[in-house]
Amino acid sequence: AQSVTQLDSQVPVFEEAPVELRCNYSSSVSVYLFWYVQYPNQGLQLLLKYLSGSTLVESINGFEAEFNKSQTSFHLRKPSVHISDTAEYFCAVSPYNQGGKLIFGQGTELSVKP
Amino acid sequence: DGGITQSPKYLFRKEGQNVTLSCEQNLNHDAMYWYRQDPGQGLRLIYYSQIVNDFQKGDIAEGYSVSREKKESFPLTVTSAQKNPTAFYLCASSRGSGSEQYFGPGTRLTVT
Predict the structure, then answer these.
(1) Which of A3, A67, B54, B70 has a 20 to 30 A CA-CA distance from A54?
(2) Cα–Cα distance measured from residue A92 to residue A1, given in angstroms and rounded to the nearest whole number
(3) Is the minimum CB–CB distance between B94 and chain A shorter than 8 Å?
(4) B104 touches chain A (CB under 8 A)
(5) Residue A14: beta bridge partners?
(6) Distance (Å, rounded) from C-alpha A26 to C-alpha A18?
(7) Interface list for chain A against chain B, based on CB atoms closer than 8 Å
(8) Regions in chain B scoring below 50 on pLDDT
(9) pLDDT in tens, B61-77
């Protein structure tokens, strides 16, 4: 079985400050790792993913996440946030060879203030 | 445009009635998924289908049913047996294991 824990339900931060959204997971099998973003009353959009290779993955809008196998973590970071980054962020894992299903964390609400 | 459509965006039903939520994709994806989202609980998997005419239960399948008669369509029926059906329902599709899931805009179901 798999589980995902997002350690902070809400993260308030000022514009241009750095931010880290924490994600830990547990799994008895190998998993792929994802971060999705959700804007109010919308579906989810992929932010970035780790499948294999370099443990540091980046998105086109400045977010990055690092896979740490020993700590079973996949924390999301951005060095300088914008007001437009205000959204809910979900960490998810997908077990190998199980049809691509996702197991989500509870979500972290990022609120960027001017 | 390629993507996933869910209809309607808002749905209201009386307790005791079955209701079917629509999900259509034109991405030619083999796999489709239904999730339920409740505040503070993230998304939970209801059912998923890896191929036409086949589907598997997710973590919270009780009170729900699905069908997969066509590759493009994966409707979800919320039955009267579902004890707490009011929620935001999201449909997704992907090419399968290890692939990104593409999400629809969601249907917000309210049962009173």
Answers:
(1) A3
(2) 14
(3) yes
(4) yes
(5) A113
(6) 27
(7) 4, 6, 9, 32, 34, 36, 41-46, 49, 51, 90, 92, 94, 96-107
(8) none
(9) 999 999 999 999 999 99
From first to last of its 114 residues, what are the pLDDT tens digits of chain A?
A: 889 999 999 999 999 999 999 999 999 999 999 999 999 878 899 999 998 888 899 898 899 999 999 999 999 999 999 999 999 999 999 998 888 899 999 999 999 999
Q: DSSP class of residue B70?
A: B
3-state secondary structure of A75: strand
Nearest alpha-carbon partner for A45 in A92, A13, A81, A79: A92
CA A102 to chain B, closest CA, distance in angstroms equals 8
pLDDT of residue B1: 60
Tell me the one-letter amino acid at A6. Answer: Q
C-alpha angle with apex A35: B29 to A99, nearest 5 degrees? 35
CB atoms within 10 A of CB A25: 19
**Diameter of chain A measured on Cα atoms:** 44
- Contact between B36 and B61 (Cβ < 8 Å): no
Q: Which amino acid is at A106?
A: Q
Half-sphere exposure of A107 (CA within 13 A, CB side): 18
Q: How many CB atoms lie within 10 A of CB A112?
A: 20
Residue A96: the pLDDT is 87
